[in-house]
Amino acid sequence: MKTDTERKLRDFLGARTAKTFAEVLGIETVGELLRHYPRRYLKKGELTPFDELELGDQATVSGRVKKVTVRSLDSKQEIRPDEIGRFRRHRTITKVVVTDGRNDLELAFFNQPWLANKLTPGTAALFWGEVTKFRDILQLKGPGTEILDEEDLSEAEIERRARPFRPLYPASAKLPTATIERSIKIVLDSLDDVEDPIPELILRKEKLLGLRDALQKIHLPETEKDWDSAQRRFRFEEALVMQTVLAQRRAVTDSLSAIPRARTTGGLLDDFDARLPFELTEGQAEVCEEIFADLAREHPMHRLLQGEVGSGKTVVALRAMLSVVDSGGQAVLLAPTEVLATQHHKTLTKMLGELAEEGMLGGAERATRVGLLTGSLNAAARRAAMLDAASGAAGIVVGTHALLEDKVQFADLGLVVVDEQHRFGVEQRAALSQKSGDNTPHVLVMTATPIPRTVAMTVFGDLAVSTLTELPAGRSPIKSSVVPAKERPAWLERAWERVREEVGKGHQVYVVCPRIGDDVKNAADEEGEFAAGGEDADAEAKGKPRPAISVLQVAEVLEQVLAGLRMEILHGRLPAEEKDAVMTRFAAGEVDVLIATTVIEVGVDVPNASTMVVMDADRFGISQLHQLRGRVGRGKVPGLCLLVTDSWPASKSRERLDAVASTTDGFELSRIDLENRREGDVLGVAQSGRRTSLKLLSVLRDEDVIYTARHVANSIVSVDADLAGYPELRAVVRSALESETTEYLEKT
Ligand code: ADP
Ligand code: MG
Hints:
- It comes from Kribbella amoyensis.
- By secondary structure, this protein is α/β, with parallel strands linked by helices.
- Helix 7 (211-219) packs across helix 8, helix 8 (224-255) crosses helix 25 (727-738) and helix 10 runs parallel beside helix 11 (313-326).
- 37% of the residues lie in helices and 18% in strands.
- The strands form four sheets. Strands 12-13-11-14-15-10-16 form a seven-stranded parallel β-sheet, with helices on both faces. Strands 17-22-21-18-20-19 form a six-stranded parallel β-sheet, with helices on both faces. Strands 3-5-6-8-7 form a five-stranded mixed β-barrel.
- It has 26 helices and 22 strands.
């Protein structure tokens, strides 16, 4: 049997209207229509007879148009309705005289000359606005209008339309908001009661409106309080559904089994600690203990480790991996790019020294191997790496996501560490589980992008969170400045001098550009999120932004400006061996200046690099700049970051750059960043252009609601994981799972 909300719209509306809803909004059922909430509400005054209008009132009147005139404010001449097109560029005033049969009222509209063709004499309409007087004539200021058809002129219909608040729906020309409003009214009127996904008890405890009542009040509010309380209810519902999905997922995770990898003593980890050239920070030590405790459990760990750029996440991860190796298992380190995977492989090998030289001359007594597996290895190297993984000879394997897709087998995979990567979702987890038999590996996800708590609770809702807040002592501060190249060309010259001076002191420099520049037409390259796509040569002349500065352009210019320095370029479209070779030479100090795209954004660690020049810095996001900047000031050398831009002072983009230059506090910057972005972006949904099923809930603003809902969801799921006792909630959760919600939960 179908519940009321699952019934088809065409049972309620005409077949044509129902079809339009399906085509334009993808709405087919009563439930879907009722969840098409108003975008906002139009506030009207009370419906008032003409002779009762009082100065200063917000009022609505119903009347007929008596006379319309349009006048140009530029040429002062009157414009006939059929000439409006010719005066398109003029500022205009349209005066409409309206009558109720006895009294007149005047309305003035600015720059809407086309109204003259709609409000023709004789037209019946509602008008609303503030009552004012001009030269003894009563006027409505800032008037709104709604034209009435002749069949709308019943008193009841006029009353209805003159409601104090009118819902405005996300609408289109084919499906205007008035049609949506009328349809919703029809559907609501024929709906007795609806099953509420929020359990009665919780409605009462949280003082929330029931579903039927809330639907009425969100679509047809009488007062502001109506829509307020209705929205509060729907926000809670969205949070509850989302948190129920997450609570169920946690329950599933908790029911999975993993091999406990308890910390043992006298193994590789102790040997490693003994040769560590520095003390762990307090934070690192604490987080390691959290991780060891997780690893010792019989259920898989799912932990998010967040920490500023340079906070030392790698050591934490390596200690966790070694602990797993000590207990007889293997660990994988997944990196988002080949450059980074290669870099990690080197870092780990170097940090481990002889501990990574199992079976080799000079290897320590107790040792393991660190394998590298990326998509671009040649067949022989690949075979060897796969063999090491499958035989267990490699205790640690570093690689890109190719590692997941491939037929790579492990002897005993115990831990997966995912670096700088938010897109590690349920599917990838499943892929990895299959590599370790019935036992699911423990998972540690690392990120340098600080994530607000509510986002961690939603997008990363099934991960426990650890945070490294302090930077290791002795880290050199980074100084950042904005270089306004257009206003102060001399500053840019000075910047290049600085580069030369730094190189003179034996340091190295990154120059980062938003674009590769090898193919202007197809510039939307893999790193080039901000790349300009396909501009014509004369784009700038047409007022379009010029294409972003490219690696190849800069390389050409610097050939001259920095003649004599050893320069190389690096970007995502170079062949893998070449990328690798360039990075190796840079790390070895054989390259002075590296001109690169954002391939160097994450993880690259060359302590001798002191300076970074970011070209067209305004084309990067705040968090991205912060990430990039983290590549310098990693050693004893003080870091310097120069943000070169053509943006003007006090412009939005310049403000962002000033913010980046003014602080190195990643959490502060991520707050600024989030404020400047829309909700969808935060969830990573807007980019893919998808709808989310979050309509009213904001993961940034509605922290309290999310906390409460999380608590409620946990208590429901802990006693009734299948929601057998909550059929309505189960139905809504299921449809949310089928819709885009899961897409973002899993893919973000
Ligand atoms: P991130 O968190 O950005 O990945 P890394 O793990 O790459 O940071 O660490 C940055 C640098 O700091 C590395 O060179 C690392 O060896 C060093 N480092 C890590 N922990 C400490 C510490 N406790 N004391 C001093 N230096 C450290
Ligand atoms: Mg790192």
